[in-house]
Specification:
4 copies of one chain form a homotetramer.
Chain A: E1 2-13, H1 14-18, H2 25-31, E2 44-48, E3 56-60, H3 68-74, E4 78-87, E5 102-104, E6 107-115, H4 118-127, H5 131-134, H6 142-152, H7 159-176, E7 183-190, E8 195-201, E9 210-212, H8 215-221, H9 226-230, E10 236-239, E11 250-252, E12 257-261, E13 267-270
Antiparallel strand pairs in A: 1-4, 1-10, 2-3, 2-4, 5-6, 6-7, 7-8, 8-12, 9-10, 9-11, 12-13
Helix pairs in contact in A: 4-6, 6-7
Chain lengths: 277, 277, 277, 277
């Protein structure tokens, strides 16, 4: 299992986002509170939008807590849309091509959870990937296969629908292999403009997921907080577990739902996997 | 492209095999003479048979010439059947799961060359892999796919036939994609008892491959050489390029042929790809 | 802080030693019970005596729990004298030259603990190192400096005396810098024949250290245990924390003491730092 | 030996600087033309000024030619003052703390060449380092020791004088050890505003060093070149070897001299080591 963070809003230094919070993602790499594993030391990745259309991705097989390059880059890169992910492998090798976020064109994707008994369903799932995409599979994780299925089902056109179809397909294939609860997930994806966050598991006991309270509200409750004064009203964070203990700052994403972070009003909807026709 | 070495015979320290020869494999990682690339710095791997039935495999993404662990292990591990491979990537990522030798049960496999435009034929080739094996694909190289095809076609029962069928299939799939010369290869494989070495390319211009002269002959010609005095008559080395300039020590493996190193008389045969029925 | 294990006795596969016990050292890399840090993921090292006079050392900056090469090697290397160490950095970089065990000639050395405020005393300590040894300092840890001081004070001739003088010197230098408790340590060192284990801290609250009960006794208490049946009477393990919960199997090394594992009767003595004259 | 590049001028993507030129630094990592070694595959480093006062430094032990993170970052980081260095180790370990550029506060430093028989003079040189700086030595290269000596001799106040004193000291210590030609170097250093480049060797046969022709001149000679149209008149590159074969674009830095790249007129002066008083 893993932990992740998605940030959208006022451009900040990655250091402010990844290292400075009380219970930062880097801290979670050593001491996760809500994860299945307390240690998430099997590599990490950071993706951000900045120069050019496509996001940059920096990945390492070292634990995030002791990677000097991450600390260096975090102190010198500023972005308004950031994905970060710390990995606890569920068995597949620790290599950069297995680190999240995954990228396709201007899309980023990261996942916490797993496809149950992935080894057994791997071939059936990968055969369903668009042949043109299949060639670009580089790693061996369930998460990358899941991403490529979502792309196959139209992620670039309609993310919620594509993820619902991908999950419906995975649930279907899993059950045909006798797997009771095939899917366990929280997922974030972005095209550089909007961010979608999903929480679902076949079992209905999904990995934790939280979103930050509206900055306007936080500013009102904490008028002396300099951070809230600086962040735009559009700023929002979605995280596997809260970055600190500030009362009122974090809200749990409900089971079987997804949210959209975007210009103007954000959205929260029910998530319903769509089985193959 | 890459360089490799297969050794079978009197147990030796890996150091004697990999570091000490005049133009050793480690030297070839920086200064290959006959390779397509002079530098083979994209990781390496060593496999050897010793304790237990299955061989050990040590792999690293660092260049072989500056890997301290390799130097350490080479000075302390002794084996009578050793595979070593230095990699020059043809595009796929530098990660341990892409380093040779690959292993399946008690079998080792390493490859120099490439499947032409692998990206285009990858899916067709991987679909032909035995579904039970497909699940164990860990890397993204053409060489691993080739190994798994050979296993699918019966490597464990009849290696020459299986490799001929795998290559016939790859040639067939490649041509159906409009590829004139789909296959370029030297390959070594072993079950821990015998070693098979193959040289073939669709074009008939294969990567270089050499085998060492009979130790009995070398001993006669070089009566004062302490190494030849020490090695058993059964000892044989197969290499991408000679390990030194000793006259009479190295013989080119002919185009489109394969050899078998085994107890008693070694063999050399013609290699004929078998197209799918 | 760190965790370590020293084994002397019947030659075993490293895998039996490092992976198979209930609360193995590899398990401790993720979930230490008695360590200052629960995670020891900042690299590791294994040293063993076998071929040749000098021990082999294998080191990696990856966490021990997910290092494939360690697992491979552990399954194929057999030795009767093994040191293994998992690291939790106290600030110095995660690099192979900072991983234990350190080696000098046929000597191995590993350390858990720290020289308090090492940064401040580093120069004074390193100036006291024998100039001929100074040149071989490769890393930046307090532990390597400690080792080189012990060598300077005669480790190769009389280990207990040399360590007592090195620690006395470190205590002296530390106090001259206003440091109340300069030293915190458990240490193991070996020349390939005997193993010395030390437990000491200026404060008198040293890191945990345990030694295994005599095999003869264990065999008597657990007559059906196949492991105890196989191990020689001379076999002994010293560890930062017990490898399992077997009643009667582990004994705490007393504060301020050191033990010697050797042919015949092992020894346990009081440890008294010797201040510089 | 190594290769390096220092850029000062119009902010550019690192990719334009490191990957796009005909004979780019990345190309030189595999195929150097003028270096002592054709392969510079023992790690690399990039430093750049941007956010904040202090420069960022990204280092890796992988060869530059196959490091995916370098390629990612190069495509997304823009800077007007960039140092890049590819390493060919002269014996010290391949680890990040031995990669250039080195940093102290807002200063960067990189070096090609070596202190002859560094092992023998290491202690004498390091004892001369300001004790407050000594504590920050992290690696084991001659280049880092050289940097710390230059800092000790006043680099931050008067770089040419400090380097002349450091080199005079190194020449002096070397000769007292019976070393005929103690110093071989090209060096670049910067405070984020100006860049100093040095070329010197005791022997008078220094490693190659080149600086780019004035952009105004290049623009006149190549009126259709879009790059020259885009770069400011202040833009200047200093490199170990030319990045391409454009006639008139590169000028050799004379033996025993140093240059200053700065706002307004750049400078070129004679370099004279100053022996200790």
């Amino acid at each position: 299992m893993c932990r992740w963070l998605a940030y959208s809003g006022t451009p900040v230094l990655l250091h402010e986002l990844l290292f400075e919070p009380a219970h930062s993602l880097i801290d979670q790499s050593l001491h996760s509170r809500l994860g299945v594993e307390t240690t998430n030391g099997d590599g990490f990745g950071v993706g951000w939008y900045g120069e050019g259309n496509d996001p940059a991705v920096f990945k390492s097989v070292e634990p995030a807590w002791n990677d000097r390059n991450l600390r260096e880059l975090a102190g010198h890169i500023r972005s308004g849309l950031v994905f970060a992910h710390i990995r606890a492998s569920t068995g597949t090798p620790v290599q950069q091509t297995n680190c999240h976020p995954f990228r396709h064109g201007n899309w980023l994707w990261m996942h916490n959870g797993s496809i149950t008994r992935f080894h057994e369903v791997k071939r059936d799932l990968q055969l369903a990937i668009d042949p043109a995409l299949y060639l670009d599979l580089e790693g061996s994780t369930d998460s990358e296969t899941f991403f490529f299925l979502a792309l196959t089902f139209g992620l670039e056109d309609d993310p919620p629908s594509a993820v619902e179809r991908a999950v419906g397909f995975i649930d279907h294939v899993g059950r045909s292999h006798g797997i009771e609860f095939p899917m366990q997930m929280t997922v974030a994806t972005s095209d550089g403009t909007r961010v979608w966050g999903f929480r679902y598991s076949t079992e209905g006991k999904s990995r934790s997921l939280f979103y930050s309270t509206l900055v306007a509200t936080l500013r009102q409750e904490y008028p002396d907080n300099p951070l809230f004064a600086r962040l735009s009203d559009e700023t929002r964070i979605v995280v596997s577990e809260p970055l600190g203990d500030l009362p009122g700052a974090w809200n749990e994403v409900p089971e079987s739902s997804y949210g959209v972070i975007q210009e103007g009003q954000d959205e929260l909807h029910h998530f319903t996997p769509r089985p193959p026709a």
